[in-house]
């Protein structure tokens, strides 16, 4: 089974692409959904966040006040790293379990929708990194419009992430979302056709003979790691 990593940046349209994939019956494991689940009231994740950031990041009903927490971490890199150290391990565990269940059900491929795929180690573990991309000026304009925010606030949020242009060197494929809805739909259609063809039918053997599947996955990841290393060096020059 092929595991595809889908990522992007704030306001590049990654969530829209993820929805379009689901509309085409592609199995998507959404890190944002899982991230909300692991910090619901009563979870160990929320308890750890409260210990680190205080009760002020809670709403009256005991749930996480994401806006209050966001105002802290977007302006303080150390605080952001502290939060990531709490949330990311729990999210990764849940995502790996989701992939395993996809494999058990005999799916040819699945898509991991991960906003911070490149910032973390997961990009090294997927078969292919797909980046939803648009130029930085369009990204800023869309973010201001989406959140009704000032240019200062929008720029602050953008600066809290790796610049979208720097993510390009990690991408095996990219979906350019600079245009309109029809153009994006056509690109998503082409991507789905391509990945289904690439997945082929070897997944049947991998599913029926698990040791073969594990060995095959290890070889693919090792080969792609070598190719990515050379590709990234070439882009640095």
TrEMBL record:
Record's keyword annotation contains DNA repair: no
GO cellular component, one term: cytoplasm
Gene Ontology MF annotations: ATP binding; dephospho-CoA kinase activity
Annotated keywords: ATP-binding, Membrane, Nucleotide-binding, Transmembrane, Transmembrane helix
Membrane-crossing residue ranges in chain numbering: 201-223
Example GO BP: coenzyme A biosynthetic process
Keyword Transcription regulation attributed: no
Family: Belongs to the CoaE family.
HAMAP family: Dephospho_CoA_kinase
UniProt-recorded name of the protein: CoaE-domain-containing protein
């Amino acid at each position: 089974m092929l595991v595809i990593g889908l990522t992007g940046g704030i306001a590049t349209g990654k969530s829209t692409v993820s929805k379009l994939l689901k509309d085409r019956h592609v199995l998507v494991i959404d890190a944002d959904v899982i991230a909300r689940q692991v910090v619901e009231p009563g979870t160990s994740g929320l308890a750890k966040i409260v210990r680190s950031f205080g009760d002020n990041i809670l709403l009256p009903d005991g749930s996480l006040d994401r806006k209050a927490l966001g105002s802290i971490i977007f302006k303080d890199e150390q605080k952001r790293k502290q939060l990531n150290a709490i949330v990311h391990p729990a999210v990764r565990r849940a995502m790996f379990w989701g992939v395993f269940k996809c494999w058990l059900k005999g799916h040819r491929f699945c898509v991991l929708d991960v906003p911070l795929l490149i910032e973390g180690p997961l990009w090294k573990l997927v078969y292919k990194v797909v980046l939803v991309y648009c130029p930085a000026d369009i990204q800023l304009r869309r973010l201001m419009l989406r959140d009704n925010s000032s240019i200062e606030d929008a720029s602050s949020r953008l600066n809290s992430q790796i610049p979208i242009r720097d993510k390009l060197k990690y991408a095996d494929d990219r979906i350019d979302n600079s245009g309109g809805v029809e153009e994006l739909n056509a690109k998503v259609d082409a991507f789905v056709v391509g990945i289904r063809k690439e997945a082929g039918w070897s997944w049947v053997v991998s599913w029926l003979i698990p040791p073969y599947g594990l060995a095959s996955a290890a070889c693919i990841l090792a080969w792609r790691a070598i190719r990515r290393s050379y590709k990234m060096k070439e882009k640095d020059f």
